[in-house]
Amino acid sequence: MADSDAARLDDVHRLLSAGRPEAAVSLLDQVLERRPNEVRALWMRAEINIRRGRFEAARSDLEAALSIDPGQPGILHALGGACHALGEHEAAESHLRQAIAANPQDARLWYSLGLVYHGAGRYQAALDAYDHALAVDPAMSIARLGQGKVWQVLGRLEAATAAFEAVLADEPGNPEAVAGLAEQEAMTGRSQAALARLDALAGGAPLPDELKLLRARLLRHAGDAEGAAAALRELLPRVVEAPRRASLLFDLGHALDELGHYDAAFAAFEEANSLKAGSFDAGTHAQRMNTIARSWDRDACRRLAEGGDASVRPIFIVGIPRSGTSLVEQILAAHPEIHGCGELNAIGSLARSREDDQGVVQPAGLSQAWLREAAEFYLEEASPPDGVSLFTDKMPANLHHLGLIQAIFPLARVIHCVRDPLDTGLSCFFQDFSALGLSWAQRLEDIAAYQRSCAELMVHWHSVLDLPICTLEYEKLVDRSEEETRRIVDFLGLGWDAACLAYHRGERPVLTASHHQAIRPLHARSVGRHHAYGKDLAALAAAKPMVEK
User: Fold this and answer.
1) Which helix (DSSP H) or strand (DSSP E) does residue 280 occupy?
2) What ranges in 355-443 are assigned the alpha helix state H?
3) Residue 333 and residue 523: Cα distance in Å, rounded?
């Protein structure tokens, strides 16, 4: 490398230290214009773009660097992180596994693999990866924190508490551990207790910014939207990294929405979505849905009807995200004979293992032996406790796989949640789904296209499946809660239990974007919510409502 280019790379570090990433990238562009195969410059530019949330650009640079220096663990590590941020979990796992093979004693690699497994919903694999990281470096607190977060997702709150407290024993005041314990209290509706925990930690001193953001969120959940908005506006100028800024803007948008400042709220949500990574091709998605429908016709479904497992325990709650799936699970999980498993990724994992290059599971390729193995895998992943008759899986995307579900569990039951598509679409636009890789939720046009294609696929399932499907409208559930709840319980073949109407008084944590709503009594405030944003929703108007059987 020429001395002038080496000097420019040194200048990049100084610019980054001074908080000038744009100028740093400009210098790297100059180096790469003259020396396009300079690995160090490609790698540095990628790392900057990762911090700025520009993951596609980072991946491109890292792939170029890797083609020049194959097998470099550091580049593989960074490439795994970029793919993870883009929701490409399998690619991220592959890159990190290659890096670990080259350097198995690097605890950071095992930790990053745990993050990927967590994001993919492979929770036991995530715990195993964090265990490997801690075996290499027992003092690695972030791996212990990762374990705590996985235990939270699994509803194992005692284990999560133990993990966070173990970190605090070694690092008093660790912000992430404190945040984990506070969020745990908020999950069960104790926002005031969570606020008290943060205030006690501060002892009158300013909180670090990470905890100020959490405190603002808790203030809103505790009913102080004004205080939350003020705190978030104070933080906003100091947050420049795209992922963190997007998260803050989502919280600010919710606070402003609750205050009735709809124009400002929509602007915050719009900016937040513009900062998120990922892309969605509506045409490709529609083609995939159409191919699923063509492949899983009535003849194909009937040919597989005699396979699978005869268990009647699984209840699949499906629908567009934000259509009421979390609420329905919370209501049902209050019944003593039903266990709520949350959003299981097992069906999605099984589907991915058999998908063709169009992302479609072809029924002709499924053997009876594989269906039995798939059922065994699914039931092991669900692991419902002994003593309950039924369990719920509320993964919304299982709507895509109902043909496969019937083949694996022909006696299972399905609850299909529907809601006004304008309310549903708006609510999706208002959520930070980055960790879930739901890039279709970033633009109103894409949300409309996604809703439309899912609605059409659901019409198809009604016409070809023998699975019992109960359609539940969110608006009716809110308006006639006992009548609709009794109808669901009866559909499941269970006796009535009044605990279903008092679901919000339970201790069960809700771990999805809907947790704040699903731990409160039913209310009609979200019905017709889109009217306040009518002038901004022209792109959503093309969405068709789900069609009942």
Assistant:
1) none
2) 368-382, 402-408, 421-429
3) 19
- What's the DSSP call for residue 414? E
pLDDT at 519 over 60: no
Each residue's pLDDT tens digit, 44-96: 888 888 887 788 889 999 999 999 999 899 999 999 999 988 878 889 999 99
Tokens describing residue 288: 């995939």
Query: Tens digit of pLDDT for each residue in 136-176?
Result: 999 999 999 999 999 988 878 889 999 999 999 999 888 88
Task: Enumerate the H helices of 296-384 as residue ranges.
Answer: 298-303, 325-333, 346-354, 368-382
Report the interhelical angle of 141-153 vs 107-119 (nearest 10°).
20
Q: CA 291, CA 286: separation in Å to the nearest integer?
A: 9
d(CA 546, CA 144): 43
Q: Which residues pair with 471 in a beta bridge?
A: 416
Query: For residues 404 and 355, what is the distance between their CA atoms, to the nearest angstrom?
Result: 11
Phi, psi (rounded to 5 degrees) for 376:
-65, -45
> What pLDDT score was predicted for residue 78?
94
The closest of 6, 56, 55, 45 to 22, measured between CA atoms, is 45
Residue that has been written with the tokens 């540095």 in this structure: 44
Residue for token pair 């207790």: 193
Q: At 11, which amino acid appears?
A: D
CB 339 within 8 A of CB 392: yes
State mean pLDDT over 177-199.
84
From the CB of residue 233, how many other CB atoms can be counted at a distance below 10 Å? 14
- d(C-alpha 315, C-alpha 460), whole Å: 20
Q: How far apart are CA 496 and CA 489, in angstroms?
A: 7
Q: What are 402's two structure tokens?
A: 């109902």
Residue 516: partners with Cβ closer than 8 Å, 6 or more residues away: 221
Given this model, what pLDDT does residue 7 score?
65
| Angstrom distance (rounded) from CA 500 to CA 515 | 17
Q: Is 315 helix (H, G, I), strand (E, B) or coil?
A: strand
List for the chain the helix, strand, coil content (%; round to 5).
65, 5, 30
φ, ψ for residue 338 (rounded to 5)?
A: -125, 135
Residue 287 buriedness (CB in 10 A; 0-12 / 13-18 / 19+): middle
